[in-house]
């Protein structure tokens, strides 16, 4: 007697029907996912998938339209609105509150990049090491937006210097998008992630930072998340992040920031 083929979607040695896995990842209904596979828009480990393919969510890499889909079990992504006075490390030797203590303890997550003790605003925490690595790697240039209240009233010269790049002790900064949003408030978008960069840039032009808030990480924004609160990213947000760190395809248009003000480009 021959073995019965596994019923639709049933695990077969850790492998499940591709459309089921895609649907669970929030790509669409199973029917929609079948159509995507049929249209040749889905790859498994770099090979175009066909209907009937099975994958192991723990090991296989699945892309839709070239964008990696988070199918691995147990990956979590939290967006936190950090308050001043919390440290961006997993544990603090001085016993200060950490950002990791604010989110659920299991599964263990780590902050993606750093915000200074006194910096407020958006911080991503995840256990997705691959995405975190790409997000923090300078070669992917994911930009971050900050709003800085500063001492004094920066004039046009200071804003121009910030835009063009200022000399810091670890080298000049790359050109940045900078605008004055109030007499003593600057909005800066940078894609480098150097230590205390915004504070040092503002200080270098004679306007030390009084208060610093991160308001955007690549495609992620949230003006409704209260200070100290966190939430899980939506599937769309995870996909947008994946897209932001996807290596540029030859001939592709340069990345744009959908949330940026045209005025400060
Ligand atoms: N730049 C800074 O100076 N501090 C931060 O926390 C983030 C960016």
Characterise the protein shown here.
The chain has 265 residues and is an alpha+beta fold. It has 2 domains: 54 residues, RNA-binding S4 domain (Structural Genomics Hypothetical 15.5 Kd Protein In mrcA-pckA Intergenic Region, Chain A), CATH 3.10.290; 188 residues, 2-Layer Sandwich (Pseudouridine synthase), CATH 3.30.2350.10. Strands 7, 8, 9, 10, 13, 14, 15 and 16 form an 8-stranded mixed sheet that branches. A hairpin with a 2-residue loop joins β5 and β6. It is elongated. The chain binds uracil.
List its salient traits.
Pseudouridine synthase; single chain; disordered C terminus; 265 residues; binds uracil; Structural Genomics Hypothetical 15.5 Kd Protein In mrcA-pckA Intergenic Region, Chain A; elongated; 16 strands; 8-stranded mixed beta sheet; alpha+beta; disordered N terminus; 4-stranded antiparallel beta sheet
Helix and strand element order:
EHHEEEEEEEEHEHEEEEHEEH
**Rounded Rg:** 22 Å
- Report the structural category: alpha+beta
How many structurally independent domains?
A: 2
What global shape is seen?
A: elongated
Mean pLDDT: 86
Count of beta strands: 16
The total of helices stands at: 6
What about the largest sheet? 8 strands, mixed
Q: Which compounds are bound in this model? A: uracil
CATH superfamily of the largest domain: Pseudouridine synthase
CATH architecture call of the largest domain:
2-Layer Sandwich
From the 3D structure, determine the CATH topology of the largest domain.
Pseudouridine synthase
């Amino acid at each position: 007697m021959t073995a019965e083929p596994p019923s639709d979607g049933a695990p077969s040695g850790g492998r499940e029907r591709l459309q089921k896995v895609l649907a669970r990842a929030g790509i669409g209904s199973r029917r929609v996912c079948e159509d995507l596979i049929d249209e040749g828009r889905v790859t498994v480990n770099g090979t175009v998938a066909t209907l009937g393919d099975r994958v192991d969510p723990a090991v296989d890499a699945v892309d839709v339209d070239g964008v990696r889909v988070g199918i691995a079990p147990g990956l979590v992504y939290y967006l936190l609105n950090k308050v001043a006075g919390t440290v961006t490390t997993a544990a603090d030797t001085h016993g200060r509150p950490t950002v990791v203590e604010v989110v659920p303890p299991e599964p263990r997550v780590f902050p993606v990049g750093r915000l200074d003790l006194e910096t407020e605003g958006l911080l991503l925490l995840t256990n997705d090491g691959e995405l975190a690595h790409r997000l923090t790697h300078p070669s992917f240039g994911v930009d971050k937006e900050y709003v800085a209240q500063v001492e004094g009233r920066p004039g046009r010269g200071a804003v121009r210097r910030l835009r063009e790049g200022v000399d810091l002790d670890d080298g000049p900064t790359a050109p940045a998008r900078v605008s004055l949003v109030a007499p003593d408030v600057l909005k800066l978008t940078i894609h480098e992630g150097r230590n205390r960069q915004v504070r040092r840039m503002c200080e270098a032009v004679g306007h030390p930072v009084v208060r610093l808030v991160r308001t955007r990480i690549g495609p992620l924004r949230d003006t409704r998340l209260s200070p100290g609160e966190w939430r899980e990213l939506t599937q769309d947000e995870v996909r947008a992040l994946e897209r932001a760190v996807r290596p540029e395809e030859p001939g592709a248009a340069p990345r744009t920031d959908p949330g940026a003000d045209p005025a400060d480009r």
